[in-house]
TrEMBL record:
The chain crosses the membrane at residues 58-82, 88-109, 130-159, 165-182, 191-211, 223-244, 265-292, 312-334, 365-397, 417-450. It is a multi-pass membrane protein. GO terms for molecular function: transmembrane transporter activity. GO terms for cellular component: plasma membrane. This is Amino acid permease. The keyword Transmembrane applies. It is found in: Cell membrane. InterPro entries: AA/rel_permease1 (IPR002293), APC_superfamily (IPR050367). Keywords: Cell membrane, Membrane, Transmembrane, Transmembrane helix. Its main location: membrane. It comes from the Bacteria.
């Protein structure tokens, strides 16, 4: 260790920090002081991201992830799975309960570990390196698939005949926005969220005042079936799963111990109220039977309510919402990629932070490139199902991690992580069989890759926990 210490040099800015002389991604950067440097899980000194975001910015980023394209299309498949209006509403409530448990557990963990990476960091610190890696892998592959789904949704609403080309163009444009700095992305996300909320409010008002609304339709359809309700809840959860973006911004929010928990719960509460209002209005206008066969339920609802003039507005709102979700998703996936690259679970070159924009530019470019491929080749329904499976497993690790917190560490009530863990696993395996099978295969492949890496390290005489920088 003495030999290594001798081969260091002072930081260029003159602060006491000493860095390796050949550090590939630190050498070009000026240290801005001790508060902007951190140690990765691999024991390496890394450049931290700029803390620019407040509670409002973090809430908007979470809303941009949740109140997006999902609300414009999820009610149809969920109604078909539930087979009744009551089943759909129960599924929505169940998804909201699981989302609340996940958000509470994630918020407590994020306040204690305010670093980029979210549950990748929490699982590593609380359960061990493998579980952190597995959570990070599930998040990256699941949310990358979700990015592809959002890109395809943009194309389907804006120009159905050229949906893939439009989706690819959207990915390129939003990757460029994120590349030049998260503050600009936050301002754009705020504008998108405002547009989408205005469109959803117009849909609710048009449906409830159109003269075709009937309260009896809220309970029509078949009887409640547990399997159908759980599947509907799993599908509805896809429309909620966005508050984790707030946790992945742990290095970019001011006062994270206060900001992250508040922002998560505020964003989730707003989202649940909006979804409940939209679901009630659409169900009361169309009924569960018509809703189950609708590919554009909100547009069909305003048409049935006699507000055909609003249909183009809904189409534009859906496209804008998909863009907002895609913007926030690329942001969150790139931050988890950054954290995993710092620990060398992904190529270390992806851990670089841009010297001017203070963002993980290589990670963002890599994520953008993969999403471009998905937008050009993937199937929309398959991407959504695969994403839901991966993200539910990610939150299962978050709840298991929160269970291990002590009271002094801010542990939530024991029932919260217990409900979250059980709910995530139940909803994940209640999804369609193809989604469960493909998701299990990809997660298993990631676990196998981890095992191969661990074996290689052991053969080199280095344990998998060696050099993790923790005492």
């Amino acid at each position: 260790m003495a030999g290594k210490a001798a081969r260091t040099r002072p930081c260029r800015s003159g602060c006491p920090t000493r860095v390796p002389p050949r550090s590939r991604h630190l050498a070009p950067l000026r240290c801005r002081g001790k508060d902007e440097r951190a140690w990765s899980g691999a024991g390496q000194l890394v450049e931290k991201l700029a803390r620019r975001l407040g509670v409002g910015d973090a809430v908007v980023i979470g809303l941009g992830s949740m109140i997006g394209a999902g609300v414009f299309g999820v009610f149809g498949p969920a109604a078909a799975a539930a087979d009744s209006g009551t089943g759909l509403l129960v599924g929505l409530a169940l998804a909201g309960v699981v989302a609340y448990a996940n958000a509470t557990s994630s918020a407590r963990l994020a306040a204690r570990y305010p670093q980029s990476g979210g549950t990748y960091v929490y699982g590593r610190e609380r359960l061990g390196e493998f579980w952190g890696y597995l959570a990070g892998w599930a998040f990256v592959v699941g949310k990358t698939a979700s990015c592809g789904a959002m890109a395809l949704t943009v194309g389907a609403y804006l120009w159905p005949a050229q949906a893939r080309a439009v989706g690819v163009a959207a990915v390129v444009a939003l990757t460029a926005v994120n590349y030049v700095g998260v503050q600009k992305a936050a301002w754009l996300t705020r504008a998108i969220v405002a547009v989408v909320l205005a469109v959803l409010a117009a849909v609710v008002v048009a449906c409830l005042t159109g003269g075709s609304v009937e309260a009896s339709r809220l309970g029509d359809g078949g009887y409640l079936a547990a399997g159908g309700v759980l599947t509907a809840a799993g599908l509805m959860f896809f429309a909620f799963a966005g508050y984790a973006r707030i946790a992945t911004l742990g290095e970019e929010v001011r006062d994270p111990a206060r900001t992250i928990p508040r922002a998560m719960l505020i964003a989730l509460g707003i989202t649940f109220v909006v979804y409940a209002a939209v679901a009630t209005a659409v169900l009361a206008t169309l009924g569960a039977g018509v809703l189950a066969h609708s590919s554009a339920p909100l547009a069909d609802a305003v048409r049935a309510a006699g507000a055909s003039w609003l249909v183009p507005v809904v189409r534009v709102g859906a496209a804008v919402g998909a863009l907002g979700s895609l913007l926030a998703l690329i942001l969150g996936v790139s931050r988890t990629t950054l954290a995993m690259a710092r620990d060398r679970h992904l190529p270390h070159a992806l851990s670089a932070v841009h010297p001017r924009f203070a963002v993980p530019h290589r990670a963002e470019l890599a994520v953008g490139a993969v999403v471009v491929v998905l937008a050009a080749t993937a199937d929309l329904q398959g991407a959504i199902g695969f994403s839901s499976f991966g993200v539910l497993l990610y939150y299962a690790v978050a709840n298991a991690s929160a269970w291990t917190l002590t009271r002094d560490e801010g542990r939530p009530p024991r029932g919260v992580p217990a409900v979250g863990l059980l709910g995530c696993l139940t909803l994940a395996f209640a999804l369609p069989l193809t989604s469960v099978a493909s998701g299990t295969a990809v997660i298993a492949a990631g676990a196998a890759a981890y095992g191969v890496r661990a074996r290689v390290l052991r053969r080199r005489g280095r344990g998998t926990g060696a050099g993790d920088g923790r005492s």
